[in-house]
Amino acid sequence: MAVGRPSKLDTLNMEAVELLAKKGFTDKEMAKVFGVTEQTFNNWKKKNKSFFESLKDWKSVADERVERSLYERAVGYSHPDTKFATYEGKITDSQEYIKHYAPDPTAIIFWLKNRKREEWKDRWEDDQESKDEQITKLEISVVTPDGNTANSD
After folding, report:
1. What is the rounded distance in angstroms from the CA atom of residue 124 to the CA atom of residue 98?
2. Beta-strand (E) ranges in 31-124?
3. For residues 45 and 53, what is the distance between their CA atoms, to the nearest angstrom?
């Protein structure tokens, strides 16, 4: 015989969990929606493998949407849009057109550094000789009132 109150997991609306996970809610946000702590939510995942696997699958839907959006930002994309003309707060005309977005360099860099890590990572040499080559000497030049230049080393 189990001691204590019954788990809310048994009465949890799984359709609601699925919807929230697919919309990108975090575990902490979902726990708040269902009136439990994040720790309780994590305990449910540990105790119920089916719940954990379903949650992981549902979250992957949101992840795939974000990945697709990053890809589209990296390569550029187009979509149908509508322009509206208004006069005194009323729409007087509308026109359909194709809106174009150019590739975004930040998205390109992010994509390449993660997908082609070996070819696009920032390269830092660890040997002392390379470090010595990277160090540059700071030279300060001062112009005196008579127009001569005095260098400081």
Report:
1. 44
2. 77-87, 90-101
3. 8
